[in-house]
Design a protein that fits this description.
With 364 residues, the protein is an alpha+beta fold. The protein has 9 helices and 17 strands. It has 2 domains: 256 residues, Aminopeptidase, CATH 3.40.630; 75 residues, Thrombin, subunit H, CATH 2.40.10.170.
Length: 364
């Protein structure tokens, strides 16, 4: 890694995880909290994790940074010698499976390498031929794409990792909380880590339906979202005004933007309509939510998606890519938002009223 401050980011983005099987991430987070006696962790009925500062006494409504703990991956159905059948959870174009290198993890974290020999997009069933037969893999073992070590790591300020989506979001939220817990004015910042996002935002829906977060919470839905030409990697964290499904809480989004501008933070403000994120789920159930994200390369481990769709590029799986500067900026933006969204100036309507009152004579 480039610096020690990114160690959590590196650790988390290399953990095997997929929807419904986030236990390795959950265990890592529990160990992280146990080393901080001023934090507490609660688990809701869906297995989501809510991290808050102990003894929080603040009249300020909570600001909750939310990120999901899963990533697209394989789940073993059966093993017969060298042949593994597995279901894929999450969204990846079928073309990327043909002959792709994969690895499965047994209960002791042993790795079992192989390649995909067939994939049915309708059932999302893959058949994988292992390099060596094994009796160590059982029902429910996790598999993911396999990358050669030289393809991973930090290169020119960019992190190349098996799963930035959304483990980089988890790392950013925890990094912000670790700083906030030491500052009395930021003790209202908490972190919600959800499950099953890649299979329909299941954990976020459960958290919203079951009241995991207080009703007056302001949720900052943290994501790593596919980069487009107008949302480049390395140009700062992104204040996300909406996604493919919805636009987010306008007042909260505008307040975060005003904080970023007043603090002169490098940032982007974009729709990011390449997919849907958990802010949509939170908003649909009446919670105040907006989105923050990192521009992501090789979304869901798919290199050159547009070229593959156009038939001009060969489908190749690749590590996901984010900028370390963007990551650091996202942490700074979260902390600034938590501190400043209740302190920023007047709302848009008030400013419009003042403009009207000053200039309405032009309409006479």
């Amino acid at each position: 890694m480039a610096t020690a401050r990114h160690r959590w980011l590196f650790d988390l983005t290399h953990l095997p995880t997929t929807s419904g099987l986030e236990h390795r991430v959950v265990e890592w987070v529990h160990a992280w909290v146990e080393r901080r006696d001023d934090l507490k962790i609660a688990t809701d009925a869906a297995g989501n994790l809510l991290l808050t500062v102990k003894g929080r006494k603040s009249r300020t409504a909570p600001v909750i940074a939310s990120a999901h703990m899963d990533h697209p991956g394989f789940v073993v159905d059966s093993v017969n010698g060298r042949e593994v059948t597995a279901r894929f959870r999450g969204s990846v174009l079928a073309a990327y499976f043909d002959g792709a290198a994969v690895e499965f993890f047994d209960a002791r974290d042993g790795r079992h390498a192989g390649k995909v020999v067939s994939y049915d997009a309708g059932t999302k069933r893959a058949v994988v031929q292992l390099q060596m037969p094994t009796s160590m893999l059982g029902l429910g073992s996790i598999g993911r794409w396999r990358f050669a070590v030289p393809k991973l790591g930090v290169k020119r300020g960019l992190l190349h990792a098996p799963a930035c989506d959304d483990l980089a979001g988890v790392a950013a939220a925890l990094t912000a909380l670790d700083q906030a817990r030491k500052k009395p004015e930021l003790r209202h910042l908490g972190v919600l880590l959800t499950r099953g996002e890649e299979e329909g935002m299941l954990g976020a829906i459960a958290a919203a339906r079951d009241g995991t977060c207080p009703d007056d919470s302001r949720l900052l839905s943290i994501e790593t979202s596919r980069s487009f030409p107008d949302s480049p990697i390395g140009e700062g964290p992104i204040i996300r005004v909406g996604d493919l499904s919805s636009v987010f809480d306008a007042d909260l989004t505008n307040r975060v933007t005003e904080v970023a501008r007043a603090s002169k933070l490098v940032h982007q403000r974009k729709l990011m309509a390449g997919g849907s994120c958990e802010a949509t789920a939170f908003g649909a159930y009446g919670l105040s939510a907006t989105g923050l994200c990192l521009a992501l390369g090789n979304y869901h481990n798919m290199a050159d998606i547009d070229g593959v769709k156009a038939g001009t590029a060969k489908p190749v799986v690749a590590p996901e890519v984010i900028s370390l500067d963007d990551f650091d900026g996202l942490v700074t933006l979260m902390l600034a938002a938590a501190k400043g969204i209740d302190e920023v100036g007047v709302g848009i309507r008030t400013r419009l009223d003042r403009t009207f009152e000053a200039n309405s004579h032009l309409l006479d």
